[in-house]
Design goal:
With 291 residues, the protein is α/β, with parallel strands linked by helices. It has helices spanning 11-22, 55-68, 117-125, 133-136, 151-161, 227-231, 268-286; strands at 2-7, 27-31, 72-75, 78-84, 87-92, 96-104, 108-110, 129-130, 145-148, 168-171, 184-186, 191-196, 201-205, 210-213, 215-218, 222-224, 255-257. Strands 1, 2, 3, 4, 5, 6 and 17 form a seven-stranded mixed sheet that branches. A five-stranded parallel sheet has the order 8-15-9-10-11. Strand 4 and strand 5 form a beta hairpin. Helix 1 (11-22) packs parallel to helix 2 and helix 1 runs parallel beside helix 7 (268-286). The structure holds flavin-adenine dinucleotide (FAD). The site of flavin-adenine dinucleotide (FAD) has 39 residues, from helix 1, strand 2, helix 4 and helix 7.
């Protein structure tokens, strides 16, 4: 039996595994390797990498780091988590493992624009499609920037970006009308189609108008990966995330949640910080138990 099973091997899950391994705790990470961190072409706001680092390189280093201290990392999707007394049973296609504690580090799924997977990846890698202005608005200062989004969320994202460029355009994905305000152009017609060239994201509106941008931020929201947690009996917060206390504990004793799947700032630095807090809480909670 493990002291802890971590579900999800992104920045959150891998950092918790590193800490737990260094606390001499037995820890297994199951990771489906379909996370957001792995899609980052190059991040420039992770502190120890002044020249930037790709998400896949960052994850490779984090996996090596956690393994070095004895964490067990498995490339597998967890299909079920069940509790029997104080013990958790975690099931994948190939095995069933037990643990005293479980960490959900399952992340969220971005809602995507209407592009094929190949077009989407092409756009992401060239910086034509972006998801996170907190992460990379700095890199596209003074470019022609579009935000595909509606309601308060779309407007808030456009307002966040406005100081970075004089050309920020809010495009409604649906029947709503984007309103111009505070240096943001609001398009009066919803998007009909989107295409990508080598250097532009080109949006055709339902009115027939065609507009080209250097970068387009997708502000269509996310879906937290919470099915396993709700299956265990956890309730979701207002934004569909897992609720935790200041030590990353959920309402079920022995169950913790960290990273994007919790409600907060979806950033690598935050995911890592929450992981350190959760791992230390687990280590302290399990203190006295013989390994
Ligand atoms: C394009 C893009 C660029 C970004 N750029 C930056 C940036 O520059 N700086 C920054 O700080 N943040 C950035 N972010 C945000 C950052 O990626 C996330 O905040 C971070 O990845 C959160 O880490 P996480 O471990 O919570 O989730 P994730 O990285 O999403 O990892 C979750 C993992 O859990 C796994 N998983 C889920 N369910 C299961 C299951 N049932 N069984 C097994 N495994 C499972 C997934 O496959 C995945 O590997 C960016 C996001 C995107 C989309």
């Amino acid at each position: 039996m493990d002291d802890c099973i971590v579900i999800g091997g992104g920045p959150a899950g891998l950092t918790s595994a590193l800490y737990l391994a260094r606390f001499l705790r037995s820890v297994t990470v199951f990771d489906a390797q379909e996370g957001r961190a792995g899609t980052i072409p190059k991040t420039h706001n992770v502190a120890p990498f002044p020249d930037g680092i790709s998400g896949s390189d960052l994850l490779d280093r984090m996996r090596r780091h956690a393994r070095q201290y004895g964490a067990r990392l498995e490339n597998a999707t967890v299909s079920a988590v069940a509790r029997q007394g104080d013990i958790f049973h975690v099931t994948t296609k190939d095995e069933m493992r037990t643990a005293r504690t479980v960490i959900f580090a399952t992340g969220v799924v971005n809602h995507r624009p209407p592009l094929s997977d190949a077009e989407h990846d092409f756009g992401l890698n060239r910086g034509l499609i972006r998801y996170c202005p907190i992460c990379d608005a700095f890199e596209i200062r003074n470019k022609r920037i579009a935000v595909l989004g509606s309601g308060d969320h779309g407007l808030a994202e456009a307002e966040f970006i406005a100081p970075y460029s004089k050309s920020v355009t809010l495009i409604p994905p649906d029947g709503t009308v984007a309103v111009a305000r505070r240096g943001i152009e609001g398009l009066p017609s919803a998007m009909s189609t989107m295409t990508l060239s080598e250097s532009e994201a080109i949006v055709t509106l339902k009115s027939g108008e065609r507009r080209a941008f250097d970068s387009l931020y997708v502000a269509l929201g996310t879906t937290p990966r919470t099915a396993l947690a709700t299956g265990l009996g956890l309730h979701l917060g207002d934004r569909g995330c897992l609720n935790v206390d200041s030590r990353q504990k959920t309402l079920i004793p022995g169950v913790y949640a960290i990273g994007d799947v919790t409600d907060g700032l979806d950033q690598i630095a935050v995911a890592m910080g929450q992981a350190a807090v959760a791992a230390t809480a687990i280590h302290n909670d399990l203190r006295g138990l013989v390994r």
